[in-house]
Design goal:
Elements: H1 18-31, H2 36-56, H3 61-78, H4 84-101, H5 106-109, H6 124-152, H7 160-171, H8 174-192, H9 201-205, H10 245-262, E1 263-267, E2 289-293, H11 297-304
Helix pairs in contact: 1-8, 2-3, 2-10, 3-8, 4-6, 6-7, 6-8, 7-8
Amino acid sequence: MVDLIGRQNNVGFTYFGDKLRTSRKLLHASLGTAARNEWKPMIEEGCVDVMKLLADKPEYWKTHVKLHVASLVVRFTYGGELTEEYVDMAEEINLDTGMALQPGWIVDSLPLLKYLPDWLPGMHFKRWALAARLRFERCTQEPYDATRLSVLDGTAPPSFVARHLTSILNRSSSSEEEILMHTAGSVYGAGTDTSWVMCNVWSMTHDPEIYDNVEVFNPDRHLSGTVKDPRQFTFGFGRRSCPGIHFANAETFMFIACVLYLFKIGPAGEIPPLSYTPTFTSQPNTFECQFELRDAALKELLYASV
């Protein structure tokens, strides 16, 4: 079903081979430590922006954080500003992907069914897959085309696509350009939703032989430096490891450092029991909390920052 909705072109689903190697080479060139000076200022600026939003309207913290991450990814990938239309479109294809990965699709058991006409009884999955495929292609094509035009007319801001597209156009390589387009389209889903490495990370982080009192939230356990660093496995393994690990770690560190410096965070009312969504990639259910500035003067300091 994943192939039917067009996600086989996504880096997370691409079979190992030349195409995947090319995609990962492009990503490593822009996301690796050698490129840190290119994206570090963008992360710092983005963190200042979201801190201002949290200071002004803390009750919308979930929206602020979500759009902050999405905005960073879009700016890094395409060099443009995040639009509401793109957010909605990208969320739809993430939902489509989760739906396609759910077990029970008859075509996954009987692949020959994908060759039958759409109008036959029982072929509703093909009609749904076509609609999902069109959404995915639009979400991949439109921002890439916009960046491509700006590269051609010399107005493109720095971005992942702009960085690699210039050399590809000079070589007149249509196959490389298609790989670049799909690689860029893969970045947003990985950055804002999740990666699709289905290893049992939960089991690794809840192994009582590695971590004491695994059900207790205790960040202090990592201060001694003797406990296994979870970043060694949360970003995947080998050729399927996340190429954005350095970008993600830098952004997460910067965001958490800024939040803890500026705000006191507490529960908004009674703390709900821990529960998770029943989706393919399970996440904690929504909860409410309060952000309060540690000092009123910090807001002036925040707005005085560049």
